[in-house]
What does this fold into?
Amino acid sequence: MGLRRKVMFPLFGDGIFTQEGDAWKRSRELLRPQFVHRQYDNLELFQEAVDNLISVLPARGLVDLQPLFFRLTLDTTTAFLFGDSVNSLQASSKAGESTFASAFNTAQDFVAKRLRLQDLYWLVGGKSFTAACEDVHRFADQIIDRNLSRDNEGSDAGKYVFLDFLGKNTSNRTELRSQIINILVAGRDTTASLRLYPSVPVNSRTAIRPTILPVGGGPDLKSPVFVAEGEAIAYSVYSMHRRPDFYGMDAELFRPERWEEDLPMNEDPINAKWGFLPFNGGPRICLGKLPDHTITTG
It folds into this structure.
């Protein structure tokens, strides 16, 4: 993990994205059962958010849908996690929820910049970052208080709320908030075209022991590369997903039907397994990965 915990902790706290070892395993086992199809069978969860999205679209002319889609996923994700949506698509009428949405965006932007700087992450932060993190934590605490104090008997019978489950299985209040924020960030970033615009375009891993990468060194980039213990290796999923030798000469185009064709990367078993990584891979593969996602990624 390297510096990730220090870089992300002010916003994420002690959650699945900042943990390793036994703590990470516990979080994964706690969260895994919640990411199954049956928890999303009730599409009523999306109805209000979709209606709000439609209501803010102009009757004619051009519109940038990307920021609206981000707000849409924020609304549906908070409805699923908290039992209450932050209604960011109608933020102008609800100042507290507008503050949360703005603070959440600000804090995420700071974290992204800190991750890029690695050892120099401490250069990015200050009062703006601290204030944004505090606003996110404060709003999450308010939602948790409201959710856990209500009488669930007889109200919203049969309605699945992620926070209800966590509250019954997590006694530590700070841990509860941290896990909620970690999953909220993951749910918030689900509007990308997973191949061309992956949710995590650049990632990194830190060597826990001296090792050797089989290729990547030398003038032709085909020689082995030594990686010392503690050294971080960054990799660009964004760039890899646009490689013509993996996806064809039109790799820059959004063309979902390519998945029905014989892609160049499938000629090599290693490339076939690791050439498409919108959800990462290995033990820390994203819990939200569903088996049918590759069909609509272009």
Notes: The first helix runs from residue 4 to 12.
